[in-house]
Amino acid sequence: MVFSLFSSTTIAHRIASLRDAEASLLEYAKTRFSPAPHHDPSHHQFEIFDCPIPSPLSSSHVCQVFGDEKSHKLHGVSVINTRTSRQQSRDGEAAPSTEQAPLVLLHGYCNGSLYFYRNFMGLSHFHFPRIYALDMYGWGLSSRPHFDLEQLQAENDVVQRAKDDGKTARETKKKVASAEKFFVESLESWRKQHNLHKMTLAGHSMGGYLSVAYAEKYPQHVERLILLSPVGVPERKEEDDHRLNSLPFHIRTLFKTVRYLFECGVTPGSFLRSLPLSKSKAMVASYILNRLPAIQCEQERKNLGEYLYQNSMLPGSGEYCLSHILTSGAFARLPLVKRIADLRSADEEGMEVHFVFGENDWMDYQGGLETQRLCFQKRSELKKQQALSLSPNERPNLPPRVFVHGVRNAGHLLMLDNHDELNAAIIIAAGGENNLPSDFPKPLEFVCDEVVAAGDVDFLRGNSDGNIYGEAGAAQFFKARARFRDRLAKKGDEVNVDADPMEEKGKGELAS
């Protein structure tokens, strides 16, 4: 089975099929998702590239797909708006200046760069002169060496910080840092090859997690950090286990089985590859049909399904990071909530970090608000210290300014569910809101109660429509989480879901 699944002939066939699916999705990007009625797509140049990079592994490993050893590659697509010399106008007819940091998009777990095919044209048309979407190392059509954790050496600074911890904490930090290095160093090598001084880095799900890991190591190269439904943000709490234990027996049993397989290193990709081919293909097709109702075109669903299927059926590599970075409950072994608060930037005012969640997202939006709360508290304390400091050289850089956005009619795959509003969220996060037409759909923005009480302008920038709401509004907007809490409440949990301030207050008012 293994030999036939990964024979050279089979792999060559899968690569060809994946390239065909990629080309079809790219054609949709050019022709079907124009952001304006009279938009001229000829002003946008699309290019599929393979960028050679040195392997981040401590010893040479042969790529399981392409066979290269000394030089591996990152595959991706670039979009360039050729109207880069004119200042972008209100109607978005011209692109901004070339001095702007390019947008770099990182996909989620077991996805690929072309998951953003619905977003390319709108992002390029309204704001970004250059966009790069990458197949991360070990996924898609990038090199796929064996994911050998023992060969990955943890970064010295991470190990140094772990010396004062207990043995278990130290080993966890080493393990996580080693797994993250696989992706962080390959991204840094790609950045050097493209000679990019700074990037606006936007990552979805696992790509969001790894974007934070990159910003920790190389903050000088990150203009802004945009986290699209990122995994691994909140810390695990006792009530999380309590809620699981309150579920019916058959659901608890299912969860425990999944956890066992997870800890054994079984990934979604390896499970799919273990099935008969007809069964695995039907499972992917069913996933696309049920999870993505926004895709109405049958041929589009077929091409996206083929893209996901062939991506998953190639030899596994980056997918095996999962159990080293996350626990079986999808909580990070080193949660991002505290790591983001410790991010530093060359800008003494701190880096900007933007969370974007879908209205029906299964990722917990509260992780974004918790991160904002922690950064707000740390910034407030440091500002007091700065006010007492006599020397500017003694003033530490401030923690990030954190913003939380919500995209309507979208779940976890918000780039496919509602591409226009996600585009607006990314553009607003990058400081380009004035480039959007006044009637363009824009996301809502949410702030924690402490920011509301303080009226801190650093966290209340909002957008021109003033769609800013507090935590009570967030609890009602993010319906999937609210419904989950309601179901648990009926089973005995004490859950208080506040009344909807978006119905009680007029549009544009700050909900308290």
TrEMBL record:
Pfam families attached to this UniProt entry: Abhydrolase_1 (PF00561)
InterPro entries with a match to the protein in the record: AB_hydrolase_1 (IPR000073), AB_hydrolase_fold (IPR029058)
Annotated AB hydrolase-1 domain residues: 102-234
The organism's place on the tree of life at top rank: Eukaryota
Signal peptide: none
Matching SUPFAM superfamilies: alpha/beta-Hydrolases
Disordered: region residues: 493-512
Biased composition range(s): Basic and acidic residues: 502-512
PANTHER family: PUMMELIG, ISOFORM A, RE40534P-RELATED
Family indicated by similarity: Belongs to the peptidase S33 family. ABHD4/ABHD5 subfamily.
Protein's recorded name: AB hydrolase-1 domain-containing protein
Lineage: Eukaryota, Sar, Stramenopiles, Ochrophyta, Bacillariophyta
